[in-house]
TrEMBL record:
Domain of life the protein comes from: Bacteria
Keyword Glycosyltransferase: yes
Acidic residues bias (residue ranges): 663-672
Name this polypeptide is given: peptidoglycan glycosyltransferase
InterPro entries referenced in this protein's UniProt entry, alphabetically: Beta-lactam/transpept-like, Glyco_trans_51, Glycosyltr_51/Transpeptidase, Lysozyme-like_dom_sf, PBP_1c, PBP_C, PBP_transglycosylase, PCN-bd_Tpept
Pathway(s) it belongs to: Cell wall biogenesis; peptidoglycan biosynthesis
GO-annotated cellular components: outer membrane-bounded periplasmic space
Gene3D superfamilies tied to this protein: Biosynthetic peptidoglycan transglycosylase-like, DD-peptidase/beta-lactamase superfamily
Ranges for region Disordered: 193-222, 644-672
Swiss-Prot/TrEMBL keywords: Carboxypeptidase, Glycosyltransferase, Hydrolase, Multifunctional enzyme, Protease, Transferase
Length: 672
């Protein structure tokens, strides 16, 4: 598994138990190829697979000295032996010669070299130059020194007898013989020979890279034809975040661990994935990937609940709400601290993560709408049991994973548009999920910028909108944060779902989240910037009447009186608009007067008792029109106005208002 810059993160053995990496000749120093062929096959680039001169020389040396001095096998013949092992006898040599000739007819010299350097034995279960270079020297083969090159050319001649981790003296002797031969042939100079022969050989193997092991386990079956999986992970960030969580692991109680996910929210690319604090943990199941585990999110859904309320015209950040326990749909929520604060703004209720106000807002938004928004992000929403979802969903009564949380908070940082986190380009371009409007996302971000941090963890270097969460029974501690470029999600808890007294998101997860942000490139400290067009900035007393206080739905009568709905215009309608006569009729059915009208979240005028309203837009374009009744129930349509093309054969209308053409096929045709 590779990082975004090609660095190796995770390596697995082949099905037959070998460490092997494919060779790219462009990544190998040409000097290595030159020295290799000088030792193994001097006429490699000229012979057709069998070097008759080398065979004749080997036979003559054997007769003259009474023993085998050189084998006469070309690199192509050695490749045949690696691909098709046979007993060492004359008949096998003849078969190897024929098969080498066949290979030369099918493959180029570079392809033969690449195959040989991929399969050459280097002792134990090491195969190929890249694997040997990695395990003995911790580097890619393009960065080998002279003495390292000599050792790795000498090893395949007797891989077990010359293993430097078991027989360092034999390995050094074989290396030095090659170095002296190259000096005798004037391939290297005397100072280089002296320095190379003094260098020690590695007497142990380096450990296999195991970064992002949980993600590697997930992607292992999705390798390309060369056995590689390319990811979007940032190698440096991944390693530093792993070290940070490993340090944290030593401070956690037995059975606990932590996990982290970092996403670039403009692209949805996952930049770091740490599934636990210790993959090989002994007192907890460290190989369980907590990034993809379904857990209760605690209070992490509250920003979405409030954002939906802002979007639906139900409330405004400065709307007042009563933080006092009252039964809601046969359920009475309690605040985390068991205290009640009385009247407060929704902004302050979200900032302090009060449960009772959040449940009141969700009662108005509706759990079905909340769940539909979550499913828009492409995640798997797990519901407990088979009963219809209740208001407890908004306070953690649901199962989500860290990718779901990252998508949600990424939408807050991306003007309301969520992207499903992607770990590699193989997943395609992530689909965009318009979760919130830009004004609602901005309002939520501004509120969360002032969320409490532990003492000493405030930073002026970057603006971070963060939210904490603690699940029922202190089983999960969460922190999710977003700045102008990145989304970070942290989880702390027990993988087995056990109870941990006193475990909270603020104390356990927020310090890790802020440390993770400190590892990231600086983002714009002015984020989220100026309010988007259509954002209403006002105090509670300056709001329209039905935004000033959030009232509970009246029992009984709420069912008898239907909520408001638009008779005209229809949702998604395109209307022809005349700037000379710009009035647009807004016609409502149902709802309890007086009514308030909002366009893109802003009031269009004073509250009116009638169900019709003449709206005067200033220009064509896209608009979101909302009507609020006396109970705060909302109806919303999105319409598109385009400039009408007047037929010159028709006289200009003398009536009041513009001539409006309705292009929506489901809307009634109206003209006035």
């Amino acid at each position: 598994m590779l990082a975004d810059d090609g660095r190796l993160l995770r390596l697995y053995t082949t099905p037959d138990g070998y460490w092997r990496l494919p060779v790219n000749l462009e990544e190998i120093d040409p000097r290595f190829i030159e020295l290799l062929t000088s030792v193994e096959d001097q006429r490699f680039f000229r012979h057709p697979g069998v070097d008759s001169l080398a065979l004749a020389r080997a036979a003559a040396q054997a007769v003259w000295q009474g023993r085998v001095v050189s084998g006469g096998s070309t690199l192509s013949m050695q490749l045949v032996r690696l691909l098709e092992p046979r007993p060492r006898r004359v008949s096998s040599k003849l078969i190897e010669m024929f098969r080498a000739w066949q290979i030369e007819r099918r493959l180029s010299k570079d392809e033969i070299l690449a195959l040989y350097l991929t399969l050459a034995p280097y002792g134990g279960n090491l195969q190929g130059l890249p694997a040997a270079s990695l395990f003995y020297f911790g580097k890619a083969p393009g960065f080998l020194t002279l003495e390292e090159t000599a050792l790795l050319i000498a090893l395949p001649q007797a891989p077990e007898a010359r293993r430097p981790d078991r027989h360092p003296q034999q390995a050094a002797a074989a290396r030095d013989r090659l170095l002296r031969a190259w000096a005798a042939d004037d391939r290297i100079d005397a100072p280089s020979l002296q320095a190379a022969t003094r260098a020690p050989v590695p007497e142990s193997r380096r450990p296999a890279p195991r970064h992002a092991p949980h993600l590697g386990d997930r992607l292992r079956g999705h390798a390309d034809g060369r056995g590689r999986v390319a990811t979007f992970l940032d190698a440096e960030l991944q390693q530093r975040l792993e070290r940070r969580l490993a340090r944290e692991q030593m401070q956690l109680a037995p059975g606990q661990t932590s996990a982290a996910l970092v996403v670039e929210h403009a692209t949805g690319q996952v930049r770091a994935w740490v599934g636990s604090g210790d993959y090989f943990g002994q007192d907890f199941p460290g190989q369980v990937d907590m990034v993809s585990a379904l857990r209760s999110p605690g209070s992490l859904l509250k920003p979405l609940i409030y954002g939906l309320a802002f979007d639906l015209g139900i409330a405004h950040p400065q709307t007042l709400v009563v933080d006092r326990a009252e039964p809601l749909k046969a359920w009475s929520p309690r605040n985390f601290d068991r205290l009640e604060q009385g009247e407060m703004t929704l902004a302050e209720a979200l900032r302090q993560s009060r449960n009772i106000p959040a449940a009141r807002v969700l009662e108005r938004v509706g759990t079905d709408r909340l769940l539909a928004a979550l499913r828009e992000l492409g995640g798997s929403v797990a519901m407990p049991g088979t009963r219809p979802p209740g208001l407890a969903v908004g306070l953690g009564g649901i199962g989500l994973d860290m990718r779901d949380i990252a998508a949600l908070y990424g939408a807050i940082g991306q003007q309301g548009v969520g992207l499903r986190p992607q770990v590699s380009a193989a997943g395609g371009v992530p689909g965009k999920a318009p979760l919130l409007s830009a004004p609602a996302a901005w309002q939520v971000a501004r509120i969360l910028l002032d969320t409490a941090r532990p003492d000493g963890h405030w930073s002026d270097r970057r603006s971070i909108a963060l939210k904490t969460g603690t699940s029922f029974g202190y089983r999960d501690a969460w922190a999710a944060g977003v700045d102008g470029a990145y989304t970070v999600v942290i989880w702390v808890g027990r993988p087995d779902g056990g109870y941990t007294p006193g475990l909270t998101g603020l104390s356990a997860a927020v310090p890790l989240l802020l440390d993770a942000f400190a590892l990231l490139p600086d983002a714009d400290p002015r984020w989220p910037g100026a309010p988007p067009e259509g954002t209403l900035l006002a105090r509670a007393e300056g709001l329209p009447p039905h935004w000033q206080r959030l009232e509970l739905r009246e029992r009984g009568s709420a069912v008898a009186t239907p909520g408001p709905r638009f008779a005209f215009p229809a949702d998604a309608a395109t209307l022809a608009w005349n700037p000379a006569r710009p009035e647009i009729l807004l016609d409502l059915r149902g709802g309890q007067p007086p009514l308030s009208w909002l366009v893109d979240g802003r009031p269009t005028g004073i509250a009116a008792r009638g169900r019709q309203h003449l709206w005067r837009p200033e220009r064509p374009g896209e608009y979101r029109v909302t009507a609020l009744d006396a109970r705060g129930r909302a109806a919303t349509v999105r319409i598109h106005l385009r400039i009408a093309e007047r037929d010159p054969a028709q006289p200009e209308s003398k009536g009041r208002g513009a001539s409006v053409q309705v292009e929506d096929p489901d809307a009634e045709g109206l003209a006035w």
